[in-house]
Fold this sequence. Notes:
The protein is built from four helices and eight strands. By secondary structure, the protein is α/β, with parallel strands linked by helices. Strand 7 and strand 8 form a beta hairpin. It starts with a strand and ends with a strand.
Amino acid sequence: MGAAYFYHLTQNPLEYTLPILLEKARSAGWKIAVRGTEMARLEFLDQKLWLGREESFLPHGIAGGDHDALQPILLTTAADLPNNASCIMCVDGADISAEDVKASDRVCILFDGYDEDAVARARVQWKALTDAGCGAQYWSEEDGGWQKKAENTGA
């Protein structure tokens, strides 16, 4: 059973932070689904991932292709996981359920700390997941690094 990690983005935008977290998830051996709410936004992230950081390469695809099941990182707006992802990264307020968390090794919820609606949505997700017995951690960007600010073991 996995846990939900909430990442409160205040220093860097999603397109900077997402590749870093994807690299870490890939180094753990996980397949990843990046779950968003709008295809146009996922296409933007797709381009940013292809341009990527010089020191890394993140093979990925957008859902709906012939090889979704083979993608180590799949960008999608759907709830299903055709690539059998063991890590789900939710962006832009994408839905996540307690069942998703319990079936995954890790769920990451990335939200813009300067968007009041995004912060409110993350609080609702935290409460729903922890009330359902999921473990959760809250991480905030501070002084160029991440600091764990809260943890709920889900017990």
